[in-house]
Amino acid sequence: MSSSATLRGPWRGFTLVELLVVIAIIATLIGLLLPAVQTARESARRMACSNNLKQNSLACLNFEASKRHFPPGGPTCMPTEGKAPWIVAGTQAGGTCYGPNWALQLFSYLEEGGLSALANQALESAEVDRANPPDTWDMQRPEWRAFHQNAVSSFRCPSSGTQGTEVPFNDGDEGGGGVGLAHLSRGNYAACFGAGTMANAFSFKHGGFENIHPGYVGVFRMELIQKSPVRGRLGKGARIKDVSDGTSKTVILSEVLTWNSPNPEGAPEEGSGVSQGNDDWRGVWMIPGPGASAFMANTTPNSSQPDVIDACGTGLDGTPDFTRIPCREERARANGGNVFAAARSRHPGGVNAALADGGVRFVADNIERGVWRAACTMQGSSRPAQSSDTDFQSESQSLP
User: Fold this and answer.
1) 202: phi then psi, degrees, rounded to nearest 5
2) How is 212-239 classified by DSSP, letter by letter?
3) Helix, strand, or coil here: 58?
4) String of b and e for 29-57 (b: at least 16 CB within 10 Å)?
5) What is the pLDDT along the chain (400 residues), one digit of tens a residue?
6) 3 state SS of 370
């Protein structure tokens, strides 16, 4: 026998113990790798979400540069008809005096000229006695279905976890005292309506209605308009020079989350051509209401305190989603406008927020409430000197 054969010895395979050790090592490596992969994916999604928000904030600033005012948060002529400015509802529920909200007025500044032209056409042909875009420009009308399908790309955050699962807002309790709005698409970006509630989200005095806390007003708010002529329903929002707290310290936009599970109350009307939805209006970008296309700094981002809104999803309480988007349903017309909703997102630890100078920051959930409320007003108090720089973290941008 050769010495080389003696040195090699007989070949043998892995023992069971060795195989189990190798498997355990591989499992450990995978366990270490997965969180890193998930973190990288969320980082990319958050950046894309931040870029979308950046686009919307620049559209607001370009609008202001062109018109010399921001788009109104929600044009309303309800006080001219003796009704409170904080009421947001369909015609069946008495809402007959509105104009297109901030989101509807941005399309030409988001390179969506076709959608802008369609909105203008709809406004020009609007019935004088039916001034309510969310109620008349909905998806049950075939000519508006494509509008909703195309528009949501500008208002959706990739981190929201709703891609491919979106359900429309179908308020199936229209005949039973609901808000009377339905067949509407959802997004994830909302305008800051200040530091209080809807009762503080306007600055005009009319018909006996007055905001008793004017310091809570944000850049976006309900603005008084006349019903006729119809072009006058566009209204005018705040001006950049009105932001006395400083544009780099004033929040104008942030994020909201939606509930995307259909429920019986969201059954569409027969023949509407709209899929099964639910009766929770969070994220409905055409509605100038809390949690829909508006948020308030009455509570901090992703607060565990429930949003108090006009249309909280029936059956949401008790589901896993409720911990992330808690709510309690109360009608603004019944509780004096004391409805509000927090900024919310699925980003770990906070929300993206756009400022009045066009910058985008990441705001931590644990930001001090007073700091957050000050940041969401434009003529109140500026950010306290003792606040931490980590309250508003810079978010690098890929857009100019």
Assistant:
1) -155, 155
2) S-GGG--SS-EEE--SSSGGGGG-----
3) helix
4) eeeeeeeeeeeeebeebbbebbbbbbbbb
5) 444 444 455 556 667 777 777 787 887 777 766 655 555 566 677 788 999 999 999 999 999 999 999 999 999 999 999 999 999 999 888 899 999 999 999 999 998 888 888 888 888 876 666 799 999 899 888 888 888 888 887 899 988 877 666 799 988 655 556 798 999 999 999 999 999 999 999 999 999 999 999 999 999 999 999 998 888 999 999 999 999 989 999 999 999 999 999 999 898 888 788 889 999 999 999 999 999 999 999 999 999 999 999 999 999 998 999 999 999 999 999 999 999 999 999 999 999 999 999 999 999 999 999 999 999 999 865 343 333 434 444 333 222 2
6) helix
301 touches 350 (CB < 8 A): yes
Give the containing element (helix H, strand E) for 334. Answer: helix 332-335
Q: How far apart are CA 47 and CA 45, in angstroms?
A: 5
Tokens at residue 74, please?
Answer: 């929600």
Q: What does the angle CA 351 – CA 166 – CA 316 come to, to the nearest 5 degrees?
A: 75
Confirm if 216 and 380 have CB atoms less than 8 A apart: yes
- φ and ψ at residue 185, rounded to 5 degrees: -85, 170
CA dihedral 355, 358, 359, 360 (to 10 degrees): 70
CA atoms of 254 and 384, how far apart (whole Å): 21
Distance of CA 138 to the CA centre of its chain: 18
Q: What is the pTM of this model?
A: 0.85
Measuring CA to CA, which residue among 259, 256, 240, 277 is closest to residue 355?
240
**Residues making up the chain, counted from first to last:** 400
Between the two ends of the chain, the Cα-to-Cα distance in Å is 77
Of 229, 294, 250, 309, the residue nearest 72 (C-alpha): 294
Determine the Cα–Cα distance for residues 85 and 76; give it in Å rounded to an integer: 7
Residue linked to tokens 């399908």 = 149
Cα(257)–Cα(283) distance, rounded to whole angstroms? Answer: 6
Contact 339, 263 (CB under 8 A): no
Structure tokens at 181: 């709005």
Residue 229 preceded by cis peptide, ω within 30: yes
Task: Give the SS3 label for residue 169.
Answer: strand
